[in-house]
Amino acid sequence: MSTRFVTLAFLSLLIIVSDSKAQQAGSAELQRLAQEGEKALAERRYEDAASAYEKVCGLAPNMAEAQARLGLIYFQMGRFEQAVRALRRALQLKPSLPNTDLLLGMALSEVGAYREALSLLEIGYKRSSDPVLKRASGLQLQRAYTGLGQDDKAVEVTLELTRLYPRDPEVLYHAGRIFGNYAYLSTVKLAEVAPDSIWLHLAAGEANESQGRTEAAIQDYRQVLAIHPDRPGVHYRIGRTLLARARQSTEDTASEPEALKEFEQELRIDPSNANAAYEAGEIHRKLAQFDDALKLFSQAVEHYPDFEEALVAKGRTLLSLGQAHEAIVPLRKSISLNAENDVAWFQLAQAYRAMGNTAEQQKALMEFQRLRDLIIRRTESGKVKRSEVTRQTLDPKGLKNDLGKILTMTPDLESYRIRKSQRVGFRYLRSAAFFIVLGSARYPDCDSGCISRAGRCCRSRVY
Length: 463
Prior knowledge:
Blueprint: H1 3-11, H2 19-24, H3 28-42, H4 46-59, H5 64-77, H6 80-93, H7 100-110, H8 114-127, H9 131-147, H10 151-164, H11 169-193, H12 198-210, H13 214-227, H14 234-247, H15 255-269, H16 274-286, H17 290-303, H18 308-320, H19 324-337, H20 342-355, H21 358-381, H22 396-409
């Protein structure tokens, strides 16, 4: 439902031509026409309602309530210029009519008279305590600020509206437009005031990276390093982009080793960059260089104790080194951070299996299977969370073999078996793209450029 229809449902309670008003005008005909107009309006027969109130205003041109009512009907019909004339006439006759000034401001906004509408909308928005009216006036105020080029004020109103109406589709739609417009204008201004700065090259690199233009992104990041060789976070971003390039082609065998060098260089500049340590460790882990991987995962967790993916990676690396008992702690902590991490539950089942703890192994496996079904449904519906770092995944072949071993150890547990009729096989593992989410959130205030998927910087600053 559009803003004006929701608003008028509320305003219609406030601007009513009552029988007493019609009687005061000295005409039974006025009373009859007003009743016809109200009935037509209630039934959403807007043309009939307008016709009735036009006749009322013709018979009683100085009845402020009738003029306001007619302006409201015109507004609801989208005849905004006529609404402006009727509402202005109503306020001339009776300036104290409730909410009529706000409705006039909204009508003026609709016809593009933003400067005249602004003061009416600002006053009406601030004074309103009714959720419906505040929402509608706020959306119109956004429009007026944007139309006048006062983008910072439009953003302020948008932030308040998204706080007040966090699940309102129309509010969220306009928020996306306004935030996107403000980001664009900020970047344009950056290009004007500092065309050769590292900040513009960083912005260009991030934009190219988010669009999958890896070569252009790397070039922009290299230009940053040419200006500021020890800039924290830039080598990490280059490494991250190289990993994205490696995923684009199975024949690319050079990008991942290059990425490792970039992550290592980042750690020489900033040892606290947990994301760089994690990505470097993940490359070592996939190469079965488990001792090196463990050191890097431990470094990541040291600087960012709640780094979920690093905790899972550390746990599975300890498993690979035969240290199942030590693996329990990081795996359990990762689950405490995100109980829906299916990889963590599967690795936990592996750890308990290695320890001979069948009861705990079975619990972990059951939760893994439940989450796997949930992930399949989310994948098919497109509801996939975005990640700043490489997600921990399960190797399809290894998973199949490991599940076979687990089920062989517990043949009496039919509820843990994979039934072919349910097709709960490995559909969601067929595409690595499910686990590797391209693109990332941007946090330009982070010096190291290493925001985790949890929304926190590796230096533990909260944004």
